[in-house]
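Thread: Newbie trying to understand structure tokens

Hi all, I'm a second-year student working on a class project, and my supervisor (Dr. K.) asked me to get a predicted structure for one chain before our next meeting. I've only ever worked with sequences, so writing a 3D structure as a token string is new to me. If someone could post the tokens and maybe explain what I'm looking at, I'd be very grateful. Here's the chain:
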Amino acid sequence: MLLIGRDMSPFVRRVVISLEILGLPFERAEWATTDDKEKIAALYPMVRVPVAKLDDGEVLVDSAAILDWIDQEVGPQKALTPASGAARRAVLQVCVITQSMLEKTIALLQERDLRPQEFVYTLKVEQRRDQMLAGLGMLEARAATDGWLIEDRLTQADVTLATGFEFAAFMIPDLVTGAAFPNLAAHHERARSLPGFQETSLEKYRMTV
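---
Reply by user tm_fold:
Sure, no problem. This is what the structure looks like when written as tokens:
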């Protein structure tokens, strides 16, 4: 399997860490949607990552679809997302809320920090900020535990939440802090022990962001 995308993307990163946790072999092509647009477009014309090219040539797009394939490869006993029942719903809910929070984080970054100041729409900034913080507040409540989030075992909810929180804190450090979200910060600290987590840390990008 060839996985395409940089660790800067929390969507790519959750796939990388999941593969490391489950011990599945894979190769990397750390292409960026800016610098490597044509190469990514040859596989996925919408030019989004992650993209996975399987050994048989099949191309999968979107992290949720790739993670679903990974879970099927390892089987229900090892899968990071339970196959059915309340535990599956709980994992998926954490993942969906985290992904929605990340979408608002990216939208806030684009509107507040990347747009020329004379074109910044203040109301839109406030809306995106409030949506991001609301998502983080929901996740903070779900992270009020000393262990993993669901049934006290490692699941995709933990991988997605930890990578999502790190991204938000890295990109919007004035709003997303450990002091503001202590449960999320503690959960992130626990996740640092996961295979591949520190190797993909966003700290390596600090000098270039």
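A couple of things are worth pointing out once you decode it. Residues 85-114 form the longest helix (30 residues). The mean pLDDT is 95. Feel free to ask follow-ups in this thread.
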